[in-house]
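Posted in: Protein Modeling Q&A

I'm a second-year student putting together a small comparison for a lab meeting, and my supervisor asked me to include a predicted structure for NADH dehydrogenase. I've never done this before, so apologies if this is the wrong subforum. The sequence is pasted below exactly as I got it from our records. If anyone can share the structure token output, I'd also love a short note on what stands out.
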Amino acid sequence: MSTIYRNLQRMAHESPVIFWSLAIGFSGPALVLVVPPIRKSLGYKQAERIPTTFPVPNRPRRAVSGYEDP
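Accepted answer (user: helix_wrangler)
Welcome! Here is the predicted structure, written out as tokens:
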């Protein structure tokens, strides 16, 4: 275990960009499991879903008049 810590410490000093990108990348899957319960406990409510279709009126269609080409 101490060798892992030493290697991580060395990597953080010699190549911090790689170290932090790996740290952020590995924390992503954990955040998927941790964040939703925290948001729910703080009272966050999801917004309504955006409609994907246009509501069609419940009546027969009328023919369009007055816009014919001459």
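A couple of things worth pointing out for your meeting: The first helix runs from residue 2 to 14. Residues 2-41 form one domain.
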